[in-house]
Amino acid sequence: MIRTAPDQEWWTAEALASSGLPDVPGTRQGVDALAAREGWRSRPHLARRRAGRGGGWEYSWQLLPARAQGALLKAAAPAEEPPARMDRGTAWAWYDGLPETVKAEARARLKVIQRVEAFAAAIGRNLAVRQVSQLEKAEGRKASERTIWGWMGMLDGVDVSDRLPYLAPRHRAAAPQRKRAECSPEFLIRLKAAFLRPAVSFRASYDVVKDVCIARGWQYLTLKTAERWFEANVPRVTVVYAKEGEAGLAKCFPPQIRDRSTLTALEGVNADCHKIDVFVAWPGIKEPVRPQIVAFQDLYSGKILSWRVDLAPNKVAVMSAFGELIETWGIPRHCLFDNGREFANKWLTGGVKTRFRFKIRPDDPLGVLPQMGIQIHWAKPGHGQAKPIERGFRDVASRIALDPRFAGAYVGPNPLAKPEDYGSRAIPLKDFLDVLDEGIRAHNARPGRLSDTARGRSFDETFAESYATAPIRKATEEQHRLWLMGQEVRKLHQNHGGLELYDNKYWAPWMNEFAGKRVIARFDPENLHAGAYVYSLRGEFLGPVECREKVGFFDLVGAQLHARTQRQRRAAEKKLLQTLRPMSVGEFAAELADLPQPETPLVEAKVVELAPARIRKPVIDRPVPAPDASTEADFQLFAADFSRPKLEPVIAVDSAADRFWRALEIERRSEAGEAISQEDAAFYARIVRLPEYQAQRTMFDRFGEQGVG
């Protein structure tokens, strides 16, 4: 129990001066000045005349500064050993099980403590306790000063947020005498490791860990006790995450509720792709296929505004559906896409810094949506709840795919739910498109929609009401070139400025001015031969160009489809080769290397004949090439130039002028077409390299024959 009063309650000025208490003056005069300044003697209950010899005044310890009071209480010996205090978790668990009347008493005590603290800021703690005690008595409640001090002692060292359990009546605070089961820490560690994994029951995990504990001599809990311990110490969300992964973890949190009533028609759209569960006979493809639907849906009403069908999701189908949306209804202000390559392509969203697909380069051209001022939002990948159009596709799957006209072509929602007539027929493409168009129109016109914006109406009616009053942006003629065209960054030819797109050549006379520069080419992906429009990297329109050499595929989708078919064929052939050749060449060679090699015994010759000595031939007998006699004369001439000839006489040259005149004569005869001997030709070739000839030639060209000395 905490002491509420010190051992010495009354003090004289001399005793206070020599006490050494904090904030108390060290001289009698200083103590008297403090008493006069704070009016101690004006409080009859806290100041009194000293009885006995000498007289004087005595002051209660409650008049001292707060730090001095705290020092006196701290120095006082406790009257009895304080009981052990419950820890925070145990206290709250105990408080939660108390009756409501006991909890109400704890709340009333806390209210008294809060009133004391409110008054203490202005008049001090002691006066605040006295004042609150008087107020409580006046209001008909029992709260003496000693009782309030006792409550405050219960809160010593307790956080403000944890006061209630410690203020509850103490006769309820006896610790439960429940005997706790004991076990080895190794048991709990292995139990968590065995159970926190997919597809295993708690009983199976417990049995395995129990066998290990018995073998190792560890103490373990019973099955029910272990289950209670696991529920109390391991959060349920952690168990779900360990067993079901992130998909299960997402189920533990409620989905976001988004209010679409604040939007207007065409203010925002979202798009996605869906593979329909129907076999379709596609022109040019032998086997039936399941086509993909690309659709744009209005976020406000839920109406499907435009759609396209193709073999696989691709940017051409997305651009075509987006073009129909703008042509028919107008330009939206927001677009919600997922992270698919068909939506994150640079034709549509180039220049957006938050794309998750494709490398972002500084010279990327702006896509169609940024150029039209449409703000792009990316949905969380693999999270169908983020795109409202997923709900519309479920309607398509449940109604359109099960249309009676598609009987026999329906494939089922998954491979394990195939109908009895699976694969019995394929719907012609034209018939499929007609039924799909009819089904989407019925989907938009069906009444009784329960969304916040429809309120029992159809999607068509909801959209029409808002569309009539909403500010709608329409596309201009220049903007039509944006959404109708794909775009690629290309460098014009260095010389003539020609453009090449998918092996097709484009050129116009004005392109000479931009030769060698990088530009943006916009084109119709479904007709590459129809020409293109060229823009600068800043988006300025430069001019149209015609297709001059039509050597590529007629359309880009056809080229991509052909390339994909080639890849599929290569993969099939590779798989077939692996089936037919189960053992590789390397494995076969290794098997051969492991075979035991037979040892051949050496056979000794009984009769030895000495072989006659002869010239050893080389290991490789190569034919020796025959010499070329046609160049023999050249070698002789070369030798005559650098050695003294012995057989043929040498023409004597008396001076440098004679050598020059001889060279000039050889030159004249060569220009006249006369025959020149090898000796003269060699002399001329040698003399023209000499400095004396070059000097004489210069003088001859300037002054004629007089210049040659």
Explain what this protein looks like in three dimensions.
With 709 residues, the protein is α+β, with helices and mostly antiparallel strands. The protein is 41% helix and 11% strand. The protein is built from 25 helices and 16 strands. It has a 6-stranded antiparallel sheet with strand order 11-14-15-16-13-12. A 5-stranded mixed sheet has the order 7-6-4-8-9, sandwiched between helices. The radius of gyration is 52 Å and the shape is extended. The N and C termini lie far apart (140 Å).
Mean pLDDT: 76
Uncertain regions spanning at least 5 consecutive residues = 580-589, 613-622, 637-651
Percent of residues in helical segments?
40-55%
Strand segment tally: 16
Distance between the termini: 140 Å
Structural class: alpha+beta
- Estimate the global geometry from the Cα principal axes: extended
Portion in strands: 5-15%
Strand order, largest beta sheet: 11-14-15-16-13-12
The value of Rg in angstroms is 52 Å
Number of helices: 25
Largest sheet: 6 strands, antiparallel
